[in-house]
Amino acid sequence: MSVSASQKSSENISENRKNKNKNKQPKDRRPNPRTAMILSILFAGLGQLYNRRFLKGSIFAIIEAAFLVTLLQFLNFGIWGLRTLGTIPGTDHSIRLLVLGVLSLIILVIAGALYVFNVLDAKKQAEKIRNGWRPASFRQSLREFYDNAFPYLMTFPGLLLMIFVVIFPLLFSVLLAFTNYNLFNSPPRNLVDWVGFENFVNLITVPIWQDTFVSVFSWTIVWTVVATTLQIALGLFLALLVNDPRIKFKKLIRTILILPWAVPAFVTILVFSAMFNDDFGAINRDIIIPLIGGEGLPWLSDPLYARIAVIMIQTWLGFPFIFALFTGVLQSISKDWYEAADVDGGSRLQKFRHITFPHVMFATAPLLIMQYAQNFNNFNIIYLFNEGGPPVRGQNAGGTDILISWVYKLTFDTNNYSMAAVISIIMGLVVSIFAFYQFRKTRSFKEEGEI
Amino acid sequence: MNRKTKSKLEVTAIYVILAIVSVVIFYPLIWTFGMSLNQGTSLYSSTLIPENLSLEHYQWLFGPESDYLLWYKNSLIVSIATAVGSVVITSLVAYAFSRYQFVGRKNGLYVFLLLQMFPVMMAMVALYIFLNMIGLLDTLSGLILIYLGGQIPFNAWLVKGYFDTIPRELDQAARIDGAGHLRVFWSVMLPLAKPILAVVALFNFMMPMFDFLLPSIILSSQENYTLAVGLYNFINDQFANNFTRFAAGSVLVALPIAAIYLYLQRYLISGLTAGGTKG
């Protein structure tokens, strides 16, 4: 009520003013920012029209009209689907409805952002005009629009892709965790329902889930820490060795050491998997049995040996990247530091601890953090080596299964989608909190505001 | 023990360590090569140095029975498209993030970077349904689109870090001379950022080439397979039986890739350290 009243009164005022200044240019009319805002809320573009920005106003208005005409029904259906997940079993496909619902949600957010922008723009413009700003010529304002919109234009294609490839699947899986979607309850035969936190509760209370989760989670942590630290340590060690001024043929040695990185990991993991084969693998046949004797080690069938094997393989795969990285940094450390240390009589260990190590770590911290995050989610090596096996009694995950390969099995082998989503969320939170915390500590998070 | 002998001992020790590491590095590679030259398909009777040297597996790969060349072509299409597309998209995004002020600039990239830490398995289900809806399931274009979207946060962060190291005076000078936004981007930023763009291109060329998970879910018909999926299928069912064939196929993939990598490694490292650490 009051809104329309104030709108009316302000319109009256401007009307009066208009009459008063009839002999002057119509551009002199001073728009009221509030009126402009309200008009823009009523229908996008109205405020701009009221500000006498006709082109802009009509563009906004056309966009909203087009939006309403084409998408209203889709959105309505999408939101209904998201709320109910379908009502008629056999006809309504809950998961397709969920996808449509998430998509409509995203479209709504984008539309909402545009709408807010339109309202704020109307207000800003009205304020500007009121403060004596004259709308520039058409060309000039086009130019200005281009200047302001440029960064958005640049990021738009990327943003659009990211919304569909990153945001949309993420929302979908988060929502999935709150449903009862699994092999026995899957569309089109059955409807999927919202179940709240039931899956989360099951994960902690049902023994088989609880046992599996605890053991897989702890192995994931051990795997991440040990494998990544080993590859970093080996990389650093070799980089220091090769960097020694007394060593010759540096270029050749470096090329050899980078080789495991250059060969596609996909191929090497499968090759290693064959080499570690209990019965006919080269490791047992050519190394273990001739050297130690016996029947060879159960690399693939015993959880402990399988774990040792994957850690060794990951070290083999991962150290060259670190080695190459550190080599680059080592060469950039100024000689002055070491000369100064020599003058002070510093030992080699002291030089390493106080000059080399801090330099190297400081320069590469974000990339090292990413190595940890990558190994936490390193699906390829676990799955391709042994498909997460060997199986373990009393669990529904294998001996080398880390969280991500367990999620894969839950999704594609046993079709327990909702539980897989729950575990995905937990994993995502762990990694992103860790990464966020670490990123904050490194300086890459600091920004300089410019232009 | 005087100083000289000590130094000599040390150097010898270093060489010995490096020799051991080299053996560990070369052993599986040479083993694979040896396997690929063995006759027959059984791993059991195969030896590192084949008794009967044969190129039968290589011949088979190029023969009419195999889709190997088709897979090679598919992989190249996906890799090249992803590499080119990612350079274009990420450099545009990074330019905006490095040089302009806009809503979401401060934290936008990091939010995406963190969101991406969430595992992709469940995303696979969503993407599968989505691609199905827009009719891009089992196509290379669908695969390329997903690769392009997924690589943006990390690579844009890398390129932005590199752009930040380019002095602003340079583009300001260009602006004073009348260069527009795109002109500055094209004539100032891009030429200076070549090393990091090379890194992005290379990463995005390699990543799809050997990604196994995504194509194995999205591509269902044999003639659309990429190399990774196709090669995996050689050994998937009866592991021991087709390993020699897999080895031959792998050698033909690994050789050119390793050559490119080793040739470009210098740029890789300099680009990575500059982009990933500053910024």
Could you describe the 3D structure shown?
Chain A is mainly α and 451 residues long. Chain A has helices spanning 2-20, 33-42, 46-50, 54-84, 94-130, 138-176, 198-205, 207-243, 250-262, 265-275, 282-292, 303-332, 335-343, 348-376, 379-386, 403-413, 417-441. Chain A has 17 helices and no strands. Chain A is flat and about 95 Å long. Mean pLDDT of chain A is 82; it is low at 1-27 and 444-451. By secondary structure, chain B is mostly helical. Chain B folds into 2 domains: 3-59; 63-277, MetI-like fold. Chain B has helices at residues 3-36, 56-62, 68-99, 108-115, 121-133, 140-165, 168-176, 181-192, 194-210, 213-218, 227-236, 243-277. In chain B, helix 2 packs across helix 12, helix 4 (108-115) packs across helix 6 and helix 6 runs antiparallel to helix 9 (194-210). The longest helix of chain B is centred in the C-terminal third of the chain and has 35 residues, at 243-277. The radius of gyration of chain B is 24 Å and the shape is flat. The N and C termini of chain B lie far apart (49 Å). The relative contact order of chain B is 0.14. Classes of the chains: A mainly alpha (451), B mainly alpha (279). At the A-B interface, helix 5, helix 6, helix 8, helix 9 and helix 10 of A face helix 1, helix 3, helix 4, helix 5 and helix 6 of B.
